[in-house]
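Problem 3 from the worked examples.
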Amino acid sequence: MDFRENITHSYNADDSFTVSSITSRGRQPQTAEAPAQTNAILDALPADLARMLAPALKTVVLRREDFIYQEDDRLDYIYFPLTAVVSEFKMLEDGRMVEIAVTGSEGAVGLSSIFSDTHTAQNCTQVSQSGTAKRLDAVTFEKMINSNEKLRESLNKFLIQYIKQISQKSICNMYHSVKERFCTWILMVQDRCGKSMLNLTHEQIARTLGVYRPSITCIAQELREARLINYSRGGISIRDRAAVERAACSCYMELSGN
């Protein structure tokens, strides 16, 4: 499936967030003009495996709010984000989607499905932040995994973190406040794409957190009044990243390793 065949757009210039970090006691995001063009999984491969995979890897651009996979779609490609960030969603009974995992330059999208018997996407995946990724044919990658023990071993760390994130997200979505989750999500997206500037919409954030849009507007206003962020028409900036980290739920530190 070509992801460009499943595109939805809800972009509104008056409703977009631009997030920039001024101070940080965690990872320091790269500048918007020159984000890091790397992927942790690919970078960690032994040199011989990296050379083996290189001809099969293709750099692609992922646009914000593109759907890479819908649930039960055939898994044709594995994506290794460089500057893009991709969210994985589960559909609720009332029709809302709630994010269960977010992946950026630290991981891969679609990797877990390689190890299933059906080779289909288990959840819906959508681009949260535009950027680049390396794309690899799933059949090619599966053959390499089956024939190379070093490659299987190199994927274990990401798979463990992926499972940990899903488990943590289920707790977060159930027990933590929308304000805490709002702060955590912005920090996690910024960490994973390596950009200091993010373009987001109220509607997108609300949909990701599984809440209604007015809640996000109220939270943004509360954070501005507390001098944690600044925002104006079409933009938001993190005024004090350390304070935003304190306002986030404990899941941020748990998942970021800070």
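Problem 4, a separate protein:
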Amino acid sequence: MGSYRWLVCALLFFATTINYIDRQILSLLKPILDNELHWTNTEFAQVTAAFQAAYALGLLAFGAFIDRYGTRLGYAVSIAAWSLAAMGHAFVGSVTGFATARVALGLGEGGNFPSAIKVVASWFPKKERAFATALFNSGANVGAIIAPAMIPWLAYTWGWRSAFVAAGLAGLVWLAFWIPLYEVPERKKRLRPAELRHIQSDGVNPEASSERVGAWRILRERRAWAFFVGKFLTDPVWWFFLTWLPDFFKTTRGLDLKQSSAPLVSIYALVTVLSVLGAWFTGSLTRRGYSVTRARKTGMFVTACLAVPIFFVTRVGDSTVIFLIGLAGAAHQAWSANLFTSASDVFPRRAVASVVGLGGMAGSLGGVLFQLFTGVLLDHFHAKGNITAGYAILFGVCASAYLLAFALNHLLSPSFEPIEI
């Protein structure tokens, strides 16, 4: 059988990789910018919260835009916008300037996941979606590996502004491949008939219908709130890792930007491997005869449990820290792949991007609150000379978030059977 769908998945993977490099640059450069801007943890948290608030709005807007105009155009507009915004960081030099640049970046990046999840729903039958989602979502981990390996070198060689310019140019290069290569399966001339039949084995393409489902109609569905609550409670954990791990290693382990690169690369390499295995686990349950609901629920519960040991991060040695954070990061990514896929399991394909956009907005709003809480808490404990205690509280919140999210998700959506809207 043909394999064009995996080429499409590769495009999503590279877009997500670039996306997460863009997101990490500011946190990696924080030790340098601390000396230049003299901002407090609270001010830094406010800048990152501004990005997430804008990202929430971008998700909402792009979810509706993509459901109306399709993924080919929606993804192109999104990545063009965020690439230009990334380069715009090179032209600012104040806390306010960075906040403005982060808002522009957040608005542009709002199209990434609604586009990617709808593309997966278009190109893959249900039995392959969790694995395809995990594969493209592993780009987040690869981006998190590349960023600490590349950004310090760029910053020390060419100046910190060069890192933002390079990330923006990478997005524009991706765009040059997306436009000529992507189309929905029914209109892709290079697609072999056998592969098209395989793709359509679950039904019609999500973009085959022009009828759009409005946001208010989605918000009336209880099972939509299962997805929203799951995102609200767990997305902030991943944002916390991306934003604060460099500062965690600097302030509690005494590692500067160059020295913290190796632990960060090790963490996200571990996340990459384990998260794909986690998504494969759910697919293997389906192949063994588990229902979609039972397989998804089992995978989500197991990954929720794997996040719990991160509670002990501030009490162990450096090697164990790397393993525990890597395990929790992998648990998040595997959890996220199953949660994303549950949206395409439950909702009609013409509504998937809107559901994902609304859920992503909920996750970003949770991220805004957690970022602001993090900044105030760390400044409080820094003033007391015990910032490690602040991080202990934060990692404790991260450890408990997934089991709470699983319980509420199950309460609101006991099954992941399809519904009609």
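Solution to problem 4. The longest helix spans residues 4-37. The domain at 4-191+213-412 is CATH 1.20.1250.20 (Growth Hormone; Chain: A;).
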